[in-house]
Amino acid sequence: MSKQLPVVIIGAGPVGLAAAAHLVEYNIPFKILEKGETVGSNILEWGYVKLFSPWEYNTNQAAIQLLQKAGWQHPNKDKLPTGKELVEEYLQPLSELQVIKDNTQYNAEVISITKDGADKLKSDGRNDRPFVVHFKNGASLNKIKASAIIDASGSWQNPNPPYADGLWLDSALRELVHTNIPAVQQEPEIFKNKHTVVIGAGHSALNSLMNLAELKETYSSTKISWILRRESPISAFGGETQDKLEARGALGTSVRKLVQQGIVEVLAPFHVEEINHSGSRYTITSREGEEVSVDELIVNSGARPDFSFLREIRYAVDSVVESTPALAPLIDPNLHSCGTVRPHGEEQLRHPEANFYIAGVKSYGRAPTFLMTTGYEQVRSIVASIAGDVQAAKQVRLKLPETGVCKTNSIPNKQQNCCG
Question: What is the tens place of the pLDDT at every residue in 268-280?
Answer without folding.
Answer: 999 999 999 998 8
